[in-house]
Design a protein that fits this description.
single chain, alpha+beta, 6-stranded antiparallel beta sheet, 6 strands, 30% strand, globular
Length: 105
């Protein structure tokens, strides 16, 4: 289990990462591009992954990490259940999300 403050700390530990509001959520960005959002009420995060990374994580951790429903999920946006994910796993998935967005530039 990872709490909201631990998620925030992990997300902001990446070089030049910033935190900004995003509708009713909090977003974490690198050079204005979102790599993660945080839903404080639901205690879930949505991270941007490549389709391949998303498929790999979802296959190994299907009840904790899974594609967002609809078209966003088909673009790599992936839900992570903070109440069930371990900190080491979340650290890796966040690093992959950050790298995915950095590499799109």
């Amino acid at each position: 289990m990872v709490d909201v403050e631990a998620f925030r700390t992990l997300a902001l530990s990446h070089t030049d990462a910033t935190e900004e509001p995003h509708f009713a959520k909090v977003s974490f960005r690198i050079q204005k591009k979102i790599f993660a959002t945080l839903d404080l009420e639901r205690k879930t995060a949505v991270l941007k992954l490549t389709e391949e990374l998303q498929a790999n994580y979802a296959a190994q951790h299907e009840s904790i990490i899974y594609p967002v429903k609809g078209a966003w999920g088909k673009q790599g946006w992936t839900t992570v259940e903070l109440n069930h994910v371990s900190e080491p796993l979340l650290t890796q998935v966040l690093a992959d999300a950050y790298t995915t967005v950095c590499n799109k530039k």
